[in-house]
């Protein structure tokens, strides 16, 4: 991921966009019918996981997608629309709590090549690209192991659903496009920020996530 965001050898911040006056309202969600029990079971076998109960019920009783990225059977098998960068091989791995890799993340950035260590800009840029490919990109991918992107929220932000491990069934905000953080979607950040379950998120924040982010985050764009 970092390698794909390096511009001129430096980590890039994605440009935010604002709606112009008179911007049309969002179209209604696609009418994706629910999946059958046989289809859900087939998808779970193929993906090597078992869906959290609330998400499984959503697929069976509500929709295969709708406002969420659709789970569908394609030429390569079962997968989610809107998840071209999600690594299939990491899906069965437990989704890690962000607190679990804080030290490793800091150590990784301590190894980020600095300009003063190289004779010229080209050499530094080459070293940074090698750092991204050898270390950083894989590390960033592992931060979202065991999860899938449920929604794209604009400006590079997305909503994640943890599918595996102790946090299975909880929802998270991927804000790495600008601040490098993944944070829980929670109505109680002062109280320790317990992440919402998928079912709670559907009731409280499926369209507007602003009240579920940390107080200093600001309102996410293009919800």
**Span between termini:** 23 Å
- In the sheet with the most strands, the strands line up as 5-6-7-8
- Radius of gyration from the alpha-carbon trace, in angstroms: 19 Å
What is the H/E order?
HEEHHEEHHEEEEH
Average pLDDT, rounded to a whole number, is 86
Total count of helical runs of at least 4 residues: 6
Q: How many distinct beta strands? A: 8
Shape: globular
* Main sheet attributes: strand count, strand direction, barrel closure: 4 strands, antiparallel
From the helix content, strand content and strand pairing, which structural class follows?
Answer: alpha+beta
In percent terms, what proportion of residues is strand?
A: 5-15%
Low-confidence stretches: 4-25
* Helix content bin: 25-40%
């Amino acid at each position: 991921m970092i390698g794909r965001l390096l511009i001129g050898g430096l980590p890039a911040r994605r440009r935010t966009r604002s709606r112009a006056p008179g911007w049309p309202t969002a179209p209604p969600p696609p009418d994706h019918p629910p999946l059958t029990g046989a289809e859900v079971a087939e998808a779970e076998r193929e993906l090597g996981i078992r869906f959290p109960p609330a998400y499984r019920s959503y697929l069976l009783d509500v929709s295969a997608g709708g406002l969420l990225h659709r789970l569908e059977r394609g030429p390569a098998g079962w997968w989610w629309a809107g998840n071209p960068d999600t690594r299939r091989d990491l899906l069965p791995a437990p989704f890690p709590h962000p607190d679990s890799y804080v030290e490793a993340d800091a150590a990784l950035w301590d190894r980020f090549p600095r300009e003063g260590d190289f004779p010229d800009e080209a050499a530094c840029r080459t070293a940074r690209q090698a750092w991204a490919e050898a270390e950083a990109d894989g590390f960033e991918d592992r931060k979202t192991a065991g999860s899938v992107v449920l929604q794209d929220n604009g400006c590079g932000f997305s909503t994640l659903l943890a599918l595996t491990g102790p946090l299975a069934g909880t929802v998270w905000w991927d804000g790495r496009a600008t601040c490098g953080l993944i944070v829980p979607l929670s109505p109680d950040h002062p109280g320790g920020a317990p992440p919402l379950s998928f079912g709670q998120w559907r009731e409280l924040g499926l369209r507007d996530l602003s009240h579920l982010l940390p107080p200093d985050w600001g309102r996410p764009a293009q919800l």
